[in-house]
Amino acid sequence: MSFSDETLFNHHAKTFSLAAKLFRSDDRYNITVFYAFCRTMDDVVDLSRSTHCSLEILNRVRGELHDGHLSSFPKMEALMREKSIPSYFLIRLIDALEDDLYPRSIKSVDELLTYAQGVASTVGVILCKTFGMRDKSAIPFAVDLGIAMQLTNIVRDVYEDAVNKHLYLPHELFDNGYLTNQIDQDTQKVVDNYQSAEISHVREKVLSIAADYYRSAEKGLKFLPIPARYAITAAASMYEEIGNSCRSDWSIKRARVSSSQKIWSSIKGISRSLLTGYRAPLHPVNSEFFYKEMIDHYGTV
To answer: Per-residue pLDDT tens for 63-79?
Structure first.
């Protein structure tokens, strides 16, 4: 395994890397390769000092994916070939990340879910490919888990995102008149009032939406091979615990979860799934149309 990829994974993906210890060694290697790609693309956007330079990088990688030769990431290209990963999912991920190069404000829950599908569900579906999953019935549940985890990230990072002129809490969840529809004014209002009851109330609403997607994702765990099933369950449970940490004190700018809390939450999550999740009816939380494009592009293994 590449030392640099493993180090990158452990340093930046602290929650997921803890759960990843439950993966088989070959699955863990594939995940670190994929994570290195995702992390690099994410940093191109999040650490951007020049929108023009960031766009050049994103466009170059996107062009390579369209051409079928990801020369900028040879390990990822090899993984795509080995696991038959369609370039569609990586391109959609890059498209979604590109939007974050600019100030943005989410107007509706539907818009938020579409954004989360682009930046996070794509990752979940690619992981399905790396695990060799053939049954497309699993895809909606992978999509749902990506959404749930991304919504948790959004609730955790409200303050930091607002500082960077990003407001992912949907306007429609606020009382009429609270936001002005002017990005600079609205994001500054969130920065100045991130501890307020109004913003805390909306964050709670987003966590409630995330909870529905977490519960839906649990239904699809039975599609995963063991031990990937337990690793993904542990990661999901740890992420959900981040939301619980936010609830415990809305004034914290960025909630954190201790290693002991993460381990305990993963144990509870695995236990809950063993008792209920695998027997639940297979009905994802959203409409069939919401998942259709990803299912259609999944192809075969």
So the answer is: 999 999 999 999 999 99
Angle at Cα 289 formed by Cα 287 and Cα 293, nearest 5°? 135
Contact 283, 213 (CB under 8 A): no
Residue 224 has a pLDDT of 87
The DSSP line for 83-138 is HT--HHHHHHHHHHHHHTTS-EE--SHHHHHHHHIIIIIHHHHHHHHHTT---GGG
Strands (E), 14-161: 104-105
Phi, psi (rounded to 5 degrees) for 194: -65, -20
Q: Provide the whole-model pTM.
A: 0.89
Return the DSSP state at 301: -
Alpha-carbon distance values, 242 to 11, 127, 255 (Å): 18, 22, 7
How confident is the model over 108-131, as pLDDT tens digits? 999 999 999 999 999 999 999 999
Distance in angstroms between the alpha carbons of the first and the last residue of the chain: 24
Neighbour tally for 21: CB within 10 Å: 10
Count the residues in the chain.
301
Q: How far apart are CA 72 and CA 76, in angstroms?
A: 9
3-state class (DSSP) for residue 23: coil
